[in-house]
Amino acid sequence: MLLLISPDGVEEALACAKAADHLDIVDVKKPDEGSLGANFPWVIREIRGAVPADKPVSATVGDVPYKPGTVAQAALGAAVSGATYIKVGLYGCTTPDQAIEVMRGVVRAVKDFRPDAFVVASGYADAHRIGCVSPLALPDIARRSGSDAAMLDTAIKDGTRLFDHVPPEACGEFVRLAHDAGLLAALAGSVKREDLAVLTRIGTDIVGVRGAVCEGGDRNSGRIQPRLVAEFRAEMDRHAREHAATPAAS
Ligand SMILES: O=C[C@H](O)COP(=O)(O)O
């Protein structure tokens, strides 16, 4: 399982750089603009320069509206700024067809510019609270749009967590659907260390984290701490080892 950490700017990206041995992807966002809030192009560029070259930089394009042209142009902006993972939060899409239309535009805009870029179609575990496409629709949306991964995060950061909205068995189904479609499955949403056993067991490919590696577990007023990134990673590795040693159920 890969570890994606979401700094809110250059200062926190430097903390990520200090913990670079313990993480896999640095994900630029602007949490005060929403769960997948987009940051400025110059911030993405500066973070790309601050993070070791072998660590991919991801950028969120925002909690986007159903405006395919606008979103495609924004996604290209993230790619031009140096992000190679482009994450789109399909906040304003109320049907799978709308979401596919948005993601097709993103995939074309990004891959025409950089064919090896990795496009992530993200929905929300708490979609029922905001009226967007349902979580289990994401793998098919990602597949039909040519995206590379399907992701879930939480839209409303009010202390509720991924499993409060999509229980472990449904997350397992999400991962299965993504894998059947040839995609990676990414999960986030106030994930804590105690969630790692389940996330490992169901075969999650990427876990996205912010609050759990911030001081005091507070994604808003806490800052990312290299020590907490290292501890989180150690826990991931422990679960991976235990899972590998567990005989598969017949
Ligand atoms: O992409 C990952 C998110 O930034 C997760 O943030 P969170 O762990 O604070 O919910």
Automatic annotation (TrEMBL):
SUPFAM superfamilies in the record: Aldolase
Enzyme Commission number(s): 4.2.3.153
Entry annotation: catalytic residues: K29 (schiff-base intermediate with substrate), K87 (proton acceptor)
MF (Gene Ontology): lyase activity
InterPro entries per record: 4HFCP_synth
Reactions listed under catalytic activity: 2 D-glyceraldehyde 3-phosphate = 4-(hydroxymethyl)-2-furancarboxaldehyde phosphate + phosphate + 2 H2O
Keyword list, A-Z: Lyase, Schiff base
Keyword Lyase listed: yes
Entry-linked Pfam families: 4HFCP_synth
Function according to Swiss-Prot or TrEMBL: Catalyzes the formation of 4-(hydroxymethyl)-2-furancarboxaldehyde phosphate (4-HFC-P) from two molecules of glyceraldehyde-3-P (GA-3-P).
Descriptive protein name: (5-formylfuran-3-yl)methyl phosphate synthase
